Amino acid sequence: MTLTAGGGFSDRAQSHTTHVVDQLGLAIVAGEYPERAMIPLDPDLEEMFGVSRTVIREAKKTLIAKGMLASKAKVGTRVQPSSEWNMFDPDVLRWHSEQKTPGRFVADLNEIRLIIEPSAAALVAERAGPAEHARLEASCEALAQAGSRTAFAMADLEFHKLILQLSDNRFLQSLGDLVQAALYSQLIAEAEEAREPGDLARSVEKHRAIVDAIRAGVPERARACMEKVVMDAPAGGVRRAG
């Protein structure tokens, strides 16, 4: 077990309940409690974390609301199938992104990116004006000037967030905020996988192609350029049939 015993606060935790939710959520995502398995009884969890039964019950309620647990009287609390989990919940996204071997999560994330980001780029090509073009140029320049792989990943994240913001679609803008933590972890992995000195430079050029298409006002070219960026992501790619 990798659960942190005791009632201490993690950096993110603002309460004992939040700490328990965080630790149990991470353990479930990591497979320490497999799908459909029972989690420990309340008295055992109380002892494990050094907290009251009220804290444990509130933590379980939170995880039930996220679709990760189901509780039944006189039976206990069981881990739900992952298909029931709310993957747009910020905590669930973060717990997945913090796994050392995220596996399918990265492929699923790339699939949703492939559905959303090319369309967002096409919208920006239709709607953006000189001020928006300047912001995109500056974002590309930040990519080019990044002094480390971590800085490159952060600049890459800001570029993709900016595309969603400039789409002028509130749903896309909100979605960008939701996937921020997960996408950052993926982009860190991509930057680390860029072994050759020219890999990051080629990535910059692919992003410049998106900006050029947007500035030219050609939505379908912007869409195609963004598709190429997402499809070429080295950290998992997109799942293929067969």
From TrEMBL:
It comes from Alloyangia mangrovi. The lineage of its organism: Bacteria, Pseudomonadati, Pseudomonadota, Alphaproteobacteria, Rhodobacterales. This is Transcriptional regulator. Keywords: DNA-binding, Transcription, Transcription regulation. It comes from the Bacteria. InterPro entries: GntR_C, TF_FadR/GntR_C, Tscrpt_reg_HTH_GntR, WH-like_DNA-bd_sf, WH_DNA-bd_sf. Pfam families: FCD, GntR. Residues 14-82 form the HTH gntR-type domain. One of its GO terms (molecular function) is DNA-binding transcription factor activity. The keyword Transcription regulation applies.
